[in-house]
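Amino acids appear as letters; backbone shape is given numerically. Here is one record.
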Amino acid sequence: MSEYAILLPGDEDAWAQSSAEQREAVYAVHREFMRRLEERGHVVTGGAELAHRRHTRVVNRGADGGVVVTDGPYAEGAEQLTGFYLVRTDDVEDLLQLAGLLAGEDGPVEVRPTTSGDPS
C-alpha cells in the first residue's frame, strides 16, 4: 500500500466567522468522506484540523547559526493549509474520486504521495 497526504486549503477567517450550522455541514461532509474511505478499504493513518494561523510559530536559523523563532505563518494569504489526512491505499484512483467530496468553495484539495512506502 502507498500512503498519500490529502491537503485541505481553507479561508480561516471565513471559518472563524461561520455559524455552528455551517460548521456542522462541513463536518458532515468529512464524516461521509471517512465512512466511504473505510467502506472502500482505504486506511486513514493520521490527520488533523489545524489551528488558526495566528497560533503559528516559524523557526529559522539566524546568521550566527542560532535558532530564531517568530510569530505568524511562513506564507501569508487568506487561503492556508487548514487540515490534512494521511491515507494508505492500493487504489489511488478511487482515493482521488473520494477526495472530490472535500473539494469545494475553498478550492481544490491536493493529494500527494508521501515518501513512506512506494508512492506509485
